[in-house]
Amino acid sequence: MRKKMGCLLALMALLSALTACGGDSAEDVSGTLPPETPMTPEETEFQSGRVEGGTYTNEFLSVACQLGDEWTYLTDEEIAQLNGEIGESLTDEELSEMFSNGKTVQDMYAASADGTATINVIFEDMGVLYGAALDEDAYINLVMPTLEDALMEFAGADHSTLRVTSTISEIPVYELMVCVKEGNYMGVITLASYLEDTTEEMAALFTALPQ
Prior knowledge:
Structural class: alpha+beta
Shape: globular
Strand order of the largest sheet: 4-5-6-10-9-8-7
Helix content: 25-40%
């Protein structure tokens, strides 16, 4: 399974290079926003999500995603490696440094056992200026101005989304990118499927946490 996961990561990296919006590495959208502005008392403090018993819970975005045995999550250590760090998980200091350097942070990555679908979640700190000025729709238009975005119900609320279809080695690839803003942070949830479009079914796996 580790070998298959490595192949999936390589495929996602290639897909990101071709579509420029795959979202599985820090280089995808970093550089589009100015360096982080120091956090003020009014800003929302970032919190990472967690995986327990097959369920990814992100209280920061108030969403959860329950996946069956046919899915495999990357471990905290593997997520840290994707973010360019070495350790059992990302520390608060490492997260703060990544955000301050204008990088995106990988929070979750999961792949189906048959290799036909992946889900990943990244975050970007937009800083005080852009955090106040950009909503989800404006963020997508800034990152990918040539592609058309649309509203979609996701985890019980309407969010700006972007669809991308491409072909890699004659294999059709479908991506649905969902933007969820919280404070000055933008969460980007990328759902990708191969051979057939199952992105909406994957989106339905995400539910809102009780308030």
